[in-house]
Specification:
Elements lengths: L5 H4 L5 H18 L2 H10 L2 H7 L5 H8 L4 H8 L4 H10 L2 H10 L2 H10 L2 H7 L5 H11 L6 H4 L6 E3 L4 H11 L8 E5 L5 E6 H6 L8 H4 L7 E2 L4 H11 L3 E5 L5 E6 H19 L14 H28 L1 H6 L7 H24 L8 H28 L5 H4 L1 H26 L9 H24 L1
Parallel strand pairs: 1-2, 4-5
Antiparallel strand pairs: 2-3, 5-6
Helix pairs in contact: 4-6, 6-8, 9-11, 16-17, 18-24, 20-23, 20-24, 21-23, 23-24
């Protein structure tokens, strides 16, 4: 079966079956140096599918196949391999071939790859790149990690406001092969100061009046990001205004580059992963779970576990403080796990909901009265239901019906306390300029555990005398 028929014969197959059928043929073509069929294979399918079909090949074989693709196509296919495999190939292959590939990779992506390479390898590759590309890499590397400047690409369609629609289309045709995206065309003056924006759709529509200038059709009310802005702030702006790309400018409004929607998706995924890790009381991981060192992973998890360990000790001290009451009414001990879990779980639920709402921009500090109002009502509803169940169970354990009231009263109080703590603490952290996700579920649960013991014993003292 010839590679040119892959899009017809293999399109409906899973990746595993495709690899099983195709890999021997690919290896045979490599052994025979069948240029025509290898070139056809590289263009027959979507670049992502082509990369997927080569997953079973070794890095050396993949690199050999890529050499039969045109430089821009080669970079597209290469971009779909996992980052660790990309790094491995860039480290092992000839510097001149690597430099030729790096030159075609989008500016923001190649900077990320180069930063992962060993210094000696970078020293071999950089002199082989064109001067303009070297300067671009060094400029992007100068921006701090996690800022808009570090995230942007400098491959942006910039056009003069004095160009007519026809002239702009011709100029765009000359630039297009070097641009990552042409959703938006950015109108600048002679000093590259951003003046406005024209969509590609507007430009094409304006061809009925080909003499109309860009300055007349552009939109000047722009949403922009400063190079120093945090990447999470940029992602929120792109989501809020439903943008496909956002321009990045300096303090003088000079256009430096753009951040495209695919990079924003990566940021959102990264931020969500960090928040999820913090909610689980783990310091954010700088690398993938399976790639991070075991000692580093232990340290990231151990920091919060140690803090929570000492928080749990406070619970033990609280129990020791009330040992007289617990010795006097031993049946109270049986309900301690129930009381602690009810308060901790309700607090964790509230904290998770509020943290995720704050992360998505649904809840701001000014909304705290509404948050507290809702948590009070929900906690009373949940607390009332669980208290009824607890009271029914306590009737069969407590000495009498009056003593059994300790359990429902405690459950209601602890659940209300847990929900209020879980809802209020993330908002308070945000107000103090801290990440609300630091108020993790285990941390909230630890606080509520201590409060739960105090509430439990004091209600028991009141009811039982």
């Amino acid at each position: 079966m010839r590679p040119g028929k892959l899009d017809l014969s293999f399109a409906a197959f899973g990746a595993t079956m495709v690899n099983t059928l195709l890999l021997p043929e690919l290896r045979e073509m490599l052994a025979d140096e069948n240029r025509a069929e290898l070139e056809e294979f590289c263009v027959a399918l979507n670049p992502g599918r082509t990369a997927e079909f080569m997953e079973g090949l070794s890095d050396v074989e993949v690199w050999s196949v890529l050499q039969f693709a045109e430089p821009d196509r080669r970079a597209e296919i290469f971009g779909y391999f996992p980052e660790e495999r990309q790094i491995a190939m860039l480290e092992a292959q000839q510097p001149d071939q690597v430099a030729q590939l790096v030159e075609e990779i989008p500016a923001d992506d190649r900077v990320d790859l180069i930063q992962e390479l060993p210094d000696d390898r970078v020293d071999e590759i950089m002199p082989l790149l064109p001067l303009e590309d070297r300067r671009d890499i060094q400029r992007l590397q100068s921006y701090p990690e996690g800022t808009a400047g570090a995230l942007m690409t400098t491959e942006v369609a910039m056009l003069s406001e004095n160009l007519t629609a026809r002239e702009a289309l011709e100029e765009l045709g000359r630039q297009a092969s070097e641009l990552e995206t042409i959703y938006y065309l950015y109108v600048v003056d002679e000093n590259r100061l951003l003046r406005g924006i024209v969509s590609t759709r507007q430009l094409v529509s304006s061809l009925v009046r080909p003499s109309r200038k860009l300055g007349e059709m552009m939109e000047s009310d722009l949403v922009v990001a400063l190079a120093s802005d945090d990447q999470e702030t940029v992602a929120q702006a792109v989501e809020k205004y439903n943008l496909l790309a956002i321009p990045v400018v300096d303090s003088g409004r000079q256009l430096l580059g753009i951040i495209t929607h695919d990079d924003v998706i990566d940021v959102v995924r990264e931020e969500l992963a960090e928040d999820a890790q913090r909610i689980a009381a783990v310091a954010p991981l700088e690398d993938e779970y399976l790639r991070i060192g075991l000692l580093t992973l232990s340290w990231k998890r151990g920091i919060w576990l140690t803090i929570l360990f000492f928080a749990a000790l406070l619970t033990a001290f609280a129990l020791r403080h009330y040992e007289i009451e617990l010795e006097r009414f031993t049946w109270l001990v049986w309900f301690i796990p129930l009381i602690i879990s009810a308060g901790g779980n309700s607090g964790s639920q509230s904290a998770t909901l509020v943290i995720t709402a704050m992360t998505s921009g649904e809840v701001e500090f000014r909304d705290w009265p509404r948050v507290m109002y809702r948590e009070v009502l929900v906690s009373l509803t949940l607390g009332g239901f669980l208290s009824l169940i607890g009271w029914i169970v306590a009737i069969f354990i407590a000495p009498n019906l009056q003593d059994a009231l300790v359990i429902p009263l405690t459950l209601l109080s602890v659940i209300v306390c847990g929900c209020l703590c879980g809802g209020a603490l993330p908002i308070l952290f945000k107000r103090l300029g801290l990440d609300p996700a630091m108020m993790s579920n285990p941390f909230v649960a630890g606080i509520v555990d201590i409060l739960g013991i105090v509430i439990y014993i004091n209600i028991a003292r009141f009811v039982l005398g």
